[in-house]
Amino acid sequence: MKYRPSPPLILLRRLLNSIEQNGFRGAIAHSWKRLRGALKNHGLAGTFERAFVKAPSAPVSPAQLPPHSFDSLHGTDTGGFVSTAKLQAVSLSALYATGYLGSPPSTLRLALAALPIQLEEFSFVDLGCGKGRALFVAAELPFRHVFGVELVGELARAARANLSVNLEWKERISIVNQDATKFAFPDGPLVLYFYNPFHDRILRRVLANLERELRRSPRDVLLVFADIYAHEPHGDPHRYRHVMDPMSSFRRISDTTYRLSAEEAAAEPSRCTVSRFTVYSANVTS
């Protein structure tokens, strides 16, 4: 896949992401520091070219990671990392996307199997499914159906290409190229999966949409937030807890870490070795 957003789009997305992480004043200070460094290293003309004409590309590392064991086994392409700066924007929501990184299958299987529910009564929904790896792992379990929602067209097409290699997956998995804030949740009990797909602004809109849907049609819903770390997090909050914990409509029911298998850790682009899964249950009534 080839991602070629314009340099101004890259700058805008980086600024918005910086505001989310550092606040407005912190983002402006960080941007000013980067600008001064660029002017010093490249001059006015060079800085203008890099910002508005041709963005620099990172050199390709000579030490390539081995293919992920999941892809070697299934003949899929779910590996690698796609930076948020390289994603094509098709809506305001895309400016708040966080890039693509596939979920580690070994830890995801453990987390889903540990959910306090009868899986066959629930459908699984991955919001920001990327190339689809979490969908294919979920399809190994007895969920009623598996849904993937992906905003970026090229990632959605990659997920569908991966889906086509397995006839059983095609019968159990549906993939839609859609903004998660506009997704109509399927009927029946749900497990919603979030692997850092977008920033707080979009999450709040998704949750507001979910609350409206549950008031109209109450049912059991679990929200699973996944994160990945280089070491055990030792009580550090997951990145969305400051959004989730104050909301009366959602109750945190578990917070568990699992270690990646040695084989998966060797092929993990982030070089992290621990996954964390924080689970909330929805408490919304009509």
Structure overview:
By secondary structure, this protein is α/β, with parallel strands linked by helices. It is 38% helix and 18% strand. The protein has helices at 7-52, 69-74, 105-113, 133-138, 153-163, 167-172, 200-216, 241-244, 262-266, and strands at 81-82, 100-101, 123-127, 146-150, 173-177, 190-194, 221-229, 250-259, 274-282.
What is the average of the pLDDT values?
83
CATH architecture of the largest domain: 3-Layer(aba) Sandwich
Alpha-beta content class = alpha/beta
Rg computed from alpha carbons, rounded to a whole number of angstroms: 20 Å
The CATH topology assignment of the largest domain is Rossmann fold
What is the share of helical residues?
25-40%
Total strand count, please?
Answer: 9
Could you name the CATH homologous superfamily of the largest domain?
Answer: Vaccinia Virus protein VP39
What order do the helices and strands follow? HHEEHEHEHHEEHEHEHE
Topology:
Blueprint: H1 7-52, H2 69-74, E1 81-82, E2 100-101, H3 105-113, E3 123-127, H4 133-138, E4 146-150, H5 153-163, H6 167-172, E5 173-177, E6 190-194, H7 200-216, E7 221-229, H8 241-244, E8 250-259, H9 262-266, E9 274-282
Parallel strand pairs: 3-4, 3-6, 4-5, 6-7
Antiparallel strand pairs: 1-2, 7-9, 8-9
